[in-house]
Specification:
The complex is a heterodimer of chains A (about 120) and B (about 110).
Chain A lengths: L3 E4 L2 E4 L5 E7 L5 E8 L3 E10 L2 E4 L7 E2 L9 E3 L8 E8 L11 E2 L3 E5 L1
Parallel strand pairs in A: 2-11
Antiparallel strand pairs in A: 1-3, 3-8, 4-5, 4-9, 5-6, 7-8, 9-10, 9-11
Chain B lengths: L2 E3 L4 E5 L4 E3 L2 E3 L5 E8 L6 E7 L7 E2 L2 E6 L4 E6 L8 E9 L5 E3 L3 E6 L1
Parallel strand pairs in B: 2-12
Antiparallel strand pairs in B: 1-4, 3-9, 5-6, 5-10, 7-8, 8-9, 10-11, 10-12
The chains are: A mainly beta (about 120), B mainly beta (about 110).
Chain lengths: ~120, ~110
């Protein structure tokens, strides 16, 4: 089954304790991205990656890191989480340009993060 | 930078009726893609419909259709014969041709009433 998986689905942590949210896709997509969803703000992009070893900042990258060492995986790292990073996080993937489905992103199930 | 505006935070509709959700966007690009995503209580993001800016014809997917007005930068979603399962948050989204970023509106919470 074609899908994007995220782990963990729920996480409660404390300020300053490093954490990683994993994301994996099995559709051979070049493009992957991370979003955070907050009430009244919709989804905002944190980081994205056009392909292996190619990453770039989105609209709200402060406090986050990413890496893309393999095509299928795109982990999100919070080196020192703070309460303002409490949010619902989504990973997404898609094909890059050159296909008719460009821009159509497939989303993971979401990770609910609470930082105390 | 592109912006997407959904001016209706909440809407409701009676089952079997038709409802239209509004979306406007701002861009200087000539070719781009527009999407409507649905987020039910399960929180899963589900693609409802997709429109390519260079296509004049409005996209349709079963009970869902769009009214794409490129000059007015408007992209509304019409849901016909509303069903209880259509109750969800609906997000309008914009992607440039390079597809590097997907910019979302703030969402419209739609409730279908029995």
């Amino acid at each position: 089954e074609a899908q994007v998986t995220q782990n963990p689905r729920y996480l409660i942590t404390v300020t300053g304790k490093k954490l990683t949210v994993t994301c994996s896709q099995n559709m051979n997509h070049e493009y992957m991205s991370w979003y955070r969803q907050d009430p009244g703000l919709g989804l905002r992009q944190i980081y994205y990656s056009m392909n292996v070893e190619v990453t770039d900042k989105g609209d709200v990258p402060e406090g986050y890191k990413v890496s893309r060492k393999e095509k299928r995986n795109f982990p999100l790292i919070l080196e020192s989480p703070s309460p303002n990073q409490t949010s619902l996080y989504f990973c997404a993937s898609s094909f890059s340009g050159g296909t008719r489905r460009v821009g159509e992103q497939f989303f993971g199930p979401g990770t609910r993060l609470t930082v105390l | 930078a592109q912006t997407v505006t959904q001016s209706q935070p909440e809407m409701s509709v009676q089952e079997a009726e038709t409802v239209t959700l509004s979306c406007t966007y701002d861009t200087s690009e000539s070719n781009y893609y527009l999407f409507w995503y649905k987020q039910p209580p399960s929180r899963q993001m589900i693609l409802v419909i997709r429109q390519e800016a260079y296509k004049q014809q409005n996209a349709t997917e079963n009970r869902f259709s769009v009214n794409f007005q490129k000059a007015a930068k408007s992209f509304s979603l019409k849901i016909s014969d509303s069903q209880l399962g259509d109750t969800a948050m609906y997000f309008c989204a914009f992607s440039s041709e390079s597809a590097r970023q997907l910019t979302f509106g703030s969402g419209t919470q739609l409730t279908v009433l029995p």
